[in-house]
Specification:
Layout: H1 2-31, H2 38-45, H3 49-53, H4 59-78, H5 87-107, H6 109-119, H7 123-149, H8 159-178, H9 186-201
Amino acid sequence: MHTNIEDGRHLRALKTRHKLIKAAEKVFIQEGFQQTTIKQIIKEAGVGYGTAYGHFNGKDEFLIVLMEDVMDKFFNVAKIPFFPTSKDEARDIILHQVLSFLEIAETERPMMKIFLEAKGLSDKVNTKWTDIQQQFIQSITKDITYSQMQGLVRTDLKAELVARSWFYSNEMYQWEIVLHTDTYHLQEVAETLTTMYTDAIYK
């Protein structure tokens, strides 16, 4: 009986948390990060103040959870197995990843705009974004290091420096897509980025 009660409470808590997160997403997109208030989120979710603050302490925390949800889509692409045996094979995998990243940025444009705004207004959000960036850079560094060990990539280049350069190049184009400032087709952007990258470091 005790277990059933606990399970019921846990399920209700999860449902409430989900309701709050969905409400926050709607309000952020409607109002922008700066204009959004906890009161608006709570009203949209239809829950009490005490209940809401039992899950989140501020709008920064709401946005960080939403950021993690969106970034998981990017991380799933980054986790695609990368064990190429040739430059051409590496290029095919990288092209698929780059194009997928750009497509996610386009699909998630409304929330990505909020992330961009919040980075300049919230230390917590900016710190979280920096952590996300570092995770991607570490993943890229690992792939470059593997390719170096396989004799596919130049070894006179430091893997982490190359990874940082590659990540920030991609991030720049993702933000351009989010802000509607890039007029080129996604496929063309992905192919250009990939060709410049692989021709620069692969043998």
